[in-house]
Fold:
Amino acid sequence: GAGVSQSPSNKVTEKGKDVELRCDPISGHTALYWYRQSLGQGLEFLIYFQGNSAPDKSGLPSDRFSAERTGGSVSTLTIQRTQQEDSAVYLCASSLQGAGGGYTFGSGTRLTVV
Amino acid sequence: GQQLNQSPQSMFIQEGEDVSMNCTSSSIFNTWLWYKQDPGEGPVLLIALYKAGELTSNGRLTAQFGITRKDSFLNISASIPSDVGIYFCAGLSNYGQNFVFGPGTRLSVLP
Structure:
């Protein structure tokens, strides 16, 4: 597509429930990133996919967080047993190849855990 | 881990004024990026810098890659209302695979 597409744009969930956030990167972009932005904060790196390589999961805050990227395109970020501190905007970004040229971000998914 | 600091945290300026903000780190970076984020949107890339000392412009925006490679600066000339938003710096180290982002500078422009 023309840009990075994320869905849903907003999600309200009850504490303890699982959620799935979806990212559709720019066609042809081999690198895909997930970041988290808490209210009034900067962007916190979560996970990075590059082609068929094993993902860099070093930023995932706990084992409740996981992500996969199917067919080198669409990615899903899953948060299990959500907690209130998981409330944030989850941003996905893609780039043509690796990080060097900068990313193109989606508009994010605003997650609210009540 | 690597961290970036941005200053000021927020600023209120009059329309037409020039703006300066900076980003500093204790680590050396090989690439600096500046992004702008509007409310409810993802950050949009403004300027990319790849070489120490490099000065790059994009319209009214000018950014510099500090010669120590530990800082970068963004200037906006003749500010207009649509400049309102949060400006993030991001740095990539030599062995890094992902950019580290600063906490942002929130800019408000008063008419």
Notes: DSSP finds no helices and eleven strands in chain B. Chain B touches chain A through 23 residues (CB under 8 Å). Chain B has a mean pLDDT of 94. The two ends of chain B are 40 Å apart (CA to CA).
